[in-house]
Structure formats: C-alpha cells, structure tokens
Design a protein that fits this description.
This protein is mainly alpha-helical. The protein has two domains: 133 residues, Peroxidase, domain 1, CATH 1.10.520; 115 residues, Peroxidase, domain 2 (Orthogonal Bundle). The chain contains twelve helices and five strands. The strands form two sheets. A three-stranded antiparallel beta sheet has the order 3-4-5. It has a two-stranded antiparallel sheet with strand order 1-2. A hairpin with an 8-residue loop joins strand 3 and strand 4. Helix 2 packs across helix 5 and helix 11 packs across helix 12. The radius of gyration is 19 Å and the shape is globular. The structure holds ligand CCH.
C-alpha cells in the first residue's frame, strides 16, 4: 500500500504553487551545460508559442502540439525533447495540469529563478489530440541566418512590434548554442544562467567578427568564447531596432518590465481563456 509520504505528494487540482516548486527544483543540475536547465526551458516555452499566426489564429502554445510528429521533429526544435522529458515526471505527479500550461509555466518559472522579472502567467491552455494532426507547418520560427526584415515578418505575424521583437530577443542573455543541434556554438554572454540585459551590452560594446570555420555563418568576440547569430547582429544593423537595444543596454529595469510583458503575451498567443 502507498505510504503516507506518497499520499501527501498527491497534489490538489489547481495547486500551481506546488507545480512551480517542482519545476524550480529541476533547474539546477550537474548534467547540463552551465549548470541549469533554465535556458532550455525558456527555449521550450518560446518555441511552443512562437508558431502563432494572428491572421489564421493557428499555432501558439494552446494544444502543446510540439509533443507530436511532425512538429517535434522540426529542425528549429532540435534538443527540446530533453526539456519535454525533464518535465514529464512533473506531468505524472500533477496530472491535472495540461502540457501546454506546464511547458509555458516552466519557461516563466525558469526566467524568475534565473534572476529575471516576475512573468505574469495564468492557466487555461488545452492539450490537443493528435487526430487530426494539429501542428502548424514548419518554418514559422525565425531562421538564424537571416536579417531584420525576416525578424520583423516573423514577430509581426505573431502580433509583436519592434519593441516586443527586441525585448524578447534579450532572452539570449541565457543559454548557448549546441553544434549538434543547429550547427552553431557558444553562449551569447559570460553569465548564461543569469537573466540580465547583458545581451544588449554585449551587442553594443563588443567587436563582433565573422568566425572563420566550416560551420554556419556566426560571429565571435575577440576571446572567441562568445557568439552572435546573424539575426542577433541584425538588431544593431537596423537603425530603429538599434535604438531599442541602446535603451535596454542602459536600463535593465526597463528591459525587465518590457520583457515580462512581451514574454507573458507570447505565452498567451491564441489561448482561449475563459473569462
Ligand atoms: Fe533563441 N536560439 N532564437 N530565442 N534561444 C537558440 C537558443 C536559445 C534564435 C535562434 C536560436 C529567441 C529568438 C531567437 C533562447 C530563447 C529565445 C539557438 C541555439 C538558436 C540557433 C539552439 C541550440 O543549439 O541549442 C533566433 C534566430 C531567434 C530570432 O528571433 C527568443 C525570442 C527567445 C525567448 C524569448 C534560449 C533561452 C536559448 C538557449 C537554449 C539553451 O539550451 O541554452
């Protein structure tokens, strides 16, 4: 028979505080990258949500369609199986939470736990079944080899403006690129498990040169330890976007409040909340 400890661990439906604590307890690790799964969980929440198209009202976090083929196998989503597997025991422990709510909440909790702003988050996402296949077509997430026009096309399609585009891009303060996933290497900042405005200060203050190698076009700093993607440098090559980069580089509080608003909105795109 189940002992008292197991009985106690059964949570009440709607107890999101316990789910938050369970997510937070998974972040620190010796097994992944820079000692935290946080950046990977932020990327999971972003890729779950960033497929949204405001015209057709398709894509987005509702449905958690990334669990299914073909979306699970889309090139842009390489490596995110690790994040979904990490969260699976939490889904087992709290079966009343939907995958779509769990994956988005994990991104919000990760930002908060890594020293970022409080991310307004509410439940209400449903999980779709795989019949008929609910996934949006491949190619909706941004392509790192492109420039400002492509970024605007993608972020405007979701319903963001230039400020939302630049604010969200600041998440690249976190985490790193993995050669075995998309061919790129290295982190953007020297503190990849700490949310900060350092992505913007690095963009402006560092001399970025094209890396000479056989891999895809990327840029490196003089130490060769940090990197920028072509899409990252597009933010300082475009005059209007650069103004916003400068603003966030000077004012981390302003970045944090704009990021919290934009990330919260991202996680809610296309979600049919019952008022
Ligand atoms: Fe990103 N991102 N991202 N990104 N991203 C990658 C990793 C992270 C682009 C490309 C890449 C956002 C926007 C963009 C994170 C959050 C956000 C990687 C490396 C590429 C390539 C993947 C790998 O190798 O593991 C492009 C292009 C765009 C254009 O807009 C936005 C927006 C967000 C969140 C709000 C995070 C976090 C990571 C690190 C993941 C990790 O495992 O460390």
């Amino acid at each position: 028979a189940a002992g008292p400890a197991l009985m106690e661990s059964k949570s009440k439906e709607g107890d999101y505080k316990s789910v938050r604590a369970a997510i937070a307890s998974k972040l620190e690790t010796d097994d992944y990258d820079d000692g935290s799964y946080g950046p990977l969980l932020v990327r999971l929440a972003w890729h779950l949500s960033g497929t949204y198209d405001k015209e057709s009202k398709t894509g987005g976090s509702n449905g958690a369609t990334m669990r299914f083929d073909p979306e699970s196998g889309h090139t842009a989503n390489r490596g995110l199986g690790v994040a979904r597997n990490l969260l699976e025991p939490i889904k087992m422990q709290y079966p009343w939470i939907t995958y779509a709510d769990l994956y988005t909440l994990a991104g919000a909790v990760a930002i908060e736990e890594m020293g970022g702003p409080k991310i307004p988050w509410r439940p209400g996402r449903e999980d779709k079944l795989n019949e008929p296949n609910p996934c949006a077509e491949d190619g909706r997430l941004p392509d790192a080899s492109q420039g400002a026009e492509h970024l605007r096309n993608v972020f405007y399609r979701m319903g963001f403006d230039d400020r939302g585009l630049v604010a969200l891009s600041g998440a690249h303060a976190l985490g790193r690129c993995h050669m075995e996933r998309l061919g790129y290497v290295n982190p953007w900042t020297p503190a990849p498990t700490q949310m900060s405005n350092m992505y913007f200060t690095e963009l402006l203050d560092t001399k970025w040169t094209q890396k000479k190698w056989w891999g895809p076009k990327q840029f490196e700093d003089p130490s060769k330890e940090l990197m920028m993607l072509p899409t990252d440098l597009a933010l300082v090559q475009d005059k209007k976007l650069k103004q916003i980069v400068v603003e966030y580089a000077k004012d981390q509080d302003k970045f944090f409040s704009d990021f919290a608003e934009a990330f919260s909105k991202l996680l809610e795109l296309g979600v049919p909340f019952k008022e």
